Amino acid sequence: MKLPIISYGDPILKRKGETIGKDYPDLQQLIADMFETMYGAHGVGLAAPQIGRSIRLFIVDASPYEEDEPGLKDFKKVFINAEMLDEDGEKWLFSEGCLSIPDIREDISRYPTIRIRYVDENWVEHEDEFGGLVARIIQHEYDHIEGKLFTDKLSPLRKAMIKSKLDAISRGQVDVDYKMKFPSLKRKR
After folding, report:
1. Cα(5)–Cα(77) distance, rounded to whole angstroms?
2. 94-113 pLDDT, tens per residue?
3. Residue 92 burial (CB count, 10 A)
4. In angstroms, rounded to a whole number, what is the distance separating the alpha carbons of residues 189 and 176?
5. Cα(75)–Cα(47) distance, rounded to whole angstroms?
6. Per the residue annotation, which of 106, 121, 125, 141 is the catalytic one?
7. Over the stretch 11-42, which tens digit does the pLDDT of each residue have?
8. What pLDDT, in 10s, does the model give residues 60-79?
9. Separation CA 84–CA 21 (nearest Å)
10. What Cα–Cα distance (Å) separates residue 144 from each residue in 68, 69, 74, 101?
11. What count of other Cβ atoms lies within 10 Å of the Cβ of residue 128?
């Protein structure tokens, strides 16, 4: 089932996600719904806070970038209770966007290599190193479960320059082809 994506301005996006256990209700269905929601919105990653769940869960499917990095052809993973262990290398800029902040793309500086510990959907623990575009996608989604957005990484001047666009998104004044929930519209109900 496709779920509505929470927009910029909702406080849940600024909250640190809670650790979950194997007994989290309907977890497998939630993961399936998150993939369906992400694909329906043409995304490559989605974190639980973006669908209104303040938990440490995110998903990634980097296969759309396989032309840029052939090793990403079948890169599809679930990250539960992730913990970033290391970020390394010389930071590099790349234009990022976010399903919760549609129509805004900004150059964001991130590390090229990461090491992360997490459990997958079968509760198998992993400690993996990732590089390149997939490391960037994982860092972006990891930020979501830490209560951070890519716009938090912008300079104060750049953020001021896009403030009116961000405010419009939080008011629901954005045209997207996927379901969204907007904080200002939620209060009026």
Report:
1. 20
2. 999 999 999 999 999 999 99
3. 13
4. 21
5. 16
6. 141
7. 999 999 999 999 999 999 999 999 999 999 99
8. 999 998 888 888 889 999 99
9. 19
10. 25, 24, 23, 12
11. 13
Report field, pTM of the whole predicted structure over 0.70: yes
Percent of the chain as helix, strand, coil, to the nearest 5: 35, 30, 35
Can you give the length of the chain in residues? 189
**Do the beta carbons of residue 174 and residue 9 sit within 8 Å?**
no
d(CA 60, CA 3): 16
- Helices and strands (H, E) in the chain, number of each type: 5, 9
Instruction: Give the three-class secondary structure for 10.
Output: coil
Domains recognised in the chain with CATH numbers: 5-188 (3.90.45.10)
User: In the predicted model, what is the mean pLDDT of the chain?
Assistant: 95
One-letter amino acid of 130: F
Residue 83 annotated in active site: no
Name the percent of the chain lying above pLDDT 90. 91
Q: Where are the alpha helices (DSSP H) in the chain?
A: 27-40, 132-145, 156-161, 163-170, 183-188
Helical H segments across 53-170, by residue range: 132-145, 156-161, 163-170
Copy the structure tokens of residue 133: 């575009």
